[in-house]
Write a structure and sequence with these properties.
By secondary structure, this protein is mostly helical. Helix content is 65%, strand content 0%. It contains 14 helices and no strands. The longest helix is centred in the first third of the chain and has 35 residues.
């Protein structure tokens, strides 16, 4: 071990003044590669879990236990012909999926994986996260417009209205998190959850934000489903009406980028739910050490939740989705902000 540490200490001088840039690139590489592997195997895991829930076998032919299925899917999409509609705006047509995928990756820059394990540990991390993720809707709108077709345009309008509506609810839910944390730093959000009366008794999981902010936890989790256009909020697609929505004219890698962005966003919503409400990298009980493994476990649980919901609940109508967002979630968030404010100013506060 000492020899390895000595060897690693000799690496920075080799790059001289370029070492900070090389170090940042290595950290970006260390985030993106595992994320892409997670995305690839989430697609296979979804098919296997849904197969089990539907009493089917699921993909099991490519490689041992079907483990090479994601690679087969990837190769198929890469070598598939990319067809561009004759009346499409070619530059915007290719910009749409690239923008959607880029936003899904850039958002991970502010995610703390463990104490000190973060690419950009900025004080306004929550604002940066909300600002970056809000750009994702532009990829959808650009794709719908550039395809120069009615169905993609209608699908893009649906997706944009839905994503903007539930961003409001998510933002209001996070105001409660900021109030009890008294910080916009994402690492600080986790550290605050590691303190409290129950944490001092060894029951860390009862000190996490999910308990005092339970309504906001539910709002954030369901809004995450709507933000990613996942079932039962997947009305941006519909085989009997607008087919594949804004992705209808895309094939090959263009379609694959939208597909990858959707699953990367699922993992992002799972990670941020864990950080905001489930203690991030914290252990649920004091006798077990904290670490990245707990955050990874919570992300996998979040991904399973996405799959379970898709297999279990029927689709909502579009008017029901809008009503849930504007007439239920937004008023509930506004009321709970008031409740938390009064609670914090009362003698019964638990956040001092």
């Amino acid at each position: 071990m000492d020899a390895l540490l000595n060897l690693l200490q000799q690496v920075p001088p080799l790059f001289g003044p370029l070492w900070p840039l090389v170090w940042v690139l290595l950290k970006i590489f260390g985030i993106i590669v595992p994320l892409l592997v997670l995305v690839a195997y989430t697609t296979m895991g979804e098919r296997r879990v849904m197969g089990a829930m539907h009493l089917r076998i699921g993909p099991n032919r490519v490689g041992p236990w079907g483990l090479l299925q994601p690679f087969a899917d990837g190769i198929k999409l890469i070598i598939k012909e990319v067809i561009t509609p004759s009346r499409a705006d070619r530059s915007l047509y290719f910009l749409g999926p690239a923008l959607a995928f880029a936003v899904a990756l850039v958002s991970w820059a502010v995610v703390p994986f463990a104490d000190g394990w973060v690419l950009a540990d900025i004080d306004a991390g929550i604002l940066a996260f909300l600002a970056i993720t809000s750009f994702g809707v532009y990829g959808v709108i650009i794709a719908g417009w550039a395809s120069n077709s009615k169905y993609p345009f209608l699908g893009a309008m649906r997706a944009a209205a839905q994503m903007v509506s539930y961003e409001v609810a998510m933002g209001l839910a996070l105001i409660c998190v900021v109030m009890v944390t008294n910080s916009l730093n994402l690492s600080e959000v986790v550290r605050v959850q590691q303190k409290g009366m129950f944490a001092s008794m060894g029951l860390n999981f009862l000190s996490w934000n999910w308990l005092p902010l339970l309504p906001m936890f539910v709002v954030y989790l369901i809004s995450g489903l709507a933000e990613t256009n996942r079932a039962p909020f997947d009305v941006v697609e519909g085989e009997s009406e607008i087919v594949a929505g804004h992705m209808m004219e895309y094939s090959g890698m263009g379609f694959a980028l939208f597909f990858l962005a959707e699953y990367a966003n699922m993992a992002l919503v799972s990670a941020m739910t864990a950080i905001f409400f489930l203690g991030g990298w914290s252990s649920p009980v004091a006798f077990l050490p904290d670490g990245f493994g707990w955050l990874a476990l919570k992300i996998l649980f979040g991904l399973f939740f996405f799959i379970w919901v898709r297999s279990t609940f029927p689709r909502y109508r579009y008017d029901q989705i809008m009503r849930l967002g504007w007439k239920v979630f937004v008023p509930l968030c506004l009321v709970w902000i008031l409740v938390i404010g009064i609670w914090m100013m009362s003698p019964f506060t638990i956040w001092k």
